[in-house]
Amino acid sequence: MPEPRTIRVDVLTRVEGEGALHIRLRGDAIEEVQLNIYEPPRLFEALLRGRPLEEVPDITARICGICPVAYQMTSVHALEAALGVQISPEIRRLRRLLYCGEWIESHALHIHLLHAPDFLGYESGLAMAADFPQEVNRGLRLKKHGNELLEVLGGRAIHPINVAVGGFYRAPRREELAALIPDFEWGLQAAVETTRWVAGLNFPKFTRPYEMVALVHPDEYPFNEGSVTSTAGTSVAVTEYERHFEEVHVAHSTALQSQRTSGGASYFVGPLARVNLNRDRLSPTAQRVADEIGFVTPCLNPYQSIVARALEVVHAYEEALTIVRDYRPFQPPRISYEYRTGEGRAATEAPRGLIYHRYAVNETGQVELAKIVPPTSQNQKQMEDDLRSFLPGIMHETDERIATLCEQLVRTYDPCISCSTHFLKVYRERH
Amino acid sequence: MAAKPKLAVFKFASCDGCQLSLLDAEDELLALAGAVDISYFPEASSHMAPGPYEVALVEGSITTPHDAERIREVRRQSKFLMTIGACATAGGIQSLRNWGDSQEFLKAVYARPEYIQTLATSTAIADHVPVDFELRGCPINHHQLVEILTSLIAGRRPRTPTHCVCLDCKRRGTVCVTVAQGIPCLGPVTQSGCGALCPAYDRGCYGCYGPVGQSNAASLGDHLVAAGTPPLQLVPLFRSFNGYAPEFKTESDRLAAQSAGGG
User: Fold this and answer.
1) Would you give the distance in Å from CA A178 to the centre of its chain?
2) pTM surpassing 0.80?
């Protein structure tokens, strides 16, 4: 029997949060694939209990410093469902605008500083800057625009303070938003350039028969609302999410990983899933660029997620410009409500994919139960499955090269593992 | 010219937002990367050089036995250790477990809590090792971060403003939300750093930058109770992102006792 060959990536880099990868091979057999996310658990679902419901968007923001808006948006929609609050069209538009800022900031960071270095052979975006100054500087400027929008509308880019259950604490003044227009007009063109650039990268030939899942809305590209839809034909209301997708605490593991309730299969969430399911509802410029670069949907190559991200940056700029140009201040910025006992669910689209929250609240306005399913915990099982399918084709490589290639495959998901509402650790052994 | 100082960024229990602030300094980032040797910053680079380091930025709180060990090694490897953010300086929002039963918290989240290794408390870095400088905020202000790194590179002593949020409201021309609208606000006892954001958005400060030096939290608590907010409602206000900072902890415990005593 040949000696086992162990490949370890002790620290996954250029991902948010901390994780490791352990692979054990014996001969041509894969003995073990572990995606070990060793983020210490922070127990948000437990600590939310008993807190005033008004604080929930402030607290859940702290799950993730990269996508706080996703947690805030999902919390307020779920709590509004519990309280029976109907928000106004003006509030709804401003929430889409806030999400545009987060997608721009998060996607621009991943595309230019975290992911592109893999295709071009650099250890970081900063190291890449010497040879690709134009691209890196463009990425930094796009990211800055996203942050500026978050600052105007949310008060600050990380952990915005203006999101409230029922709406916003204060609606922005028209001139505050209008000041963004020149930068955003430049940014829309720059995002098109970025899309053309990433479309020309050299993608490894790797596709899988993914079931991709995203929100789908009849009239718009999904941010805050839609039915939970899969490329395999499932389409259900958000209230039915937990019947179709479950979190499992696997034996011999500490993983809470998501899977399809029926059959236990993995599924794929994120920008590529969104574009595949919503291509016709991308903004006009994003659709035109997708056609120009020959982006064929459904695309089942995870490495091309970088192109999907870039198309979404184009979309976010174009939609943000539309909202900002039409904006008029309105009253009230926040819909009032009475406390009542109830339960509410919501799903929205975080930069990294579908995110789901459920809350129960009581008649004194306190949280009684919180359930939070972040995008990366949903992709976790899919990443493992990908690695198992990917490894046989690269067994002949050196251990160091295998480690690098596997890390790159994981990075295509833009995993954000600081969202340790659950401690995600995968441990599998085969005898 | 001397070799560029080696900078390392370490993460403990946190949301990543404070280290992201370094990447959010878009205008200064490339210049900064030229002035220091970014030796260990896994979120941004696959290049990971071993210590020792001249400057270590530490994000996050200590919540596991492994991390309680790891922070000692980080300290040994680092000449100047600076904590960044409320988790590292006060234990963060995850320190709410310190008032509860951590095993019960685990059971609320996991089907098999026995698999999870965690401490009963979430504590600040300074509770475990000596800290050379604490940068406050939830999240930190990236302008302050750049200013401090610039000071360190230039060999100057780093400084951040230590006045309370109230002064920033006055400078900004924001009408006091407590006086004018009766909204409970932690501005009088919270350190400056955010630019007095919340009152400018018609809401009370919730203490992201932690207690200001010589704060009189009990006086503020008494004032807010006298103005009509029941003590029980003030407990979560003091007990949040910096809730385990001693001044805020003492006041939230006092208000909780007052509420229990008063029925």
Assistant:
1) 28
2) yes
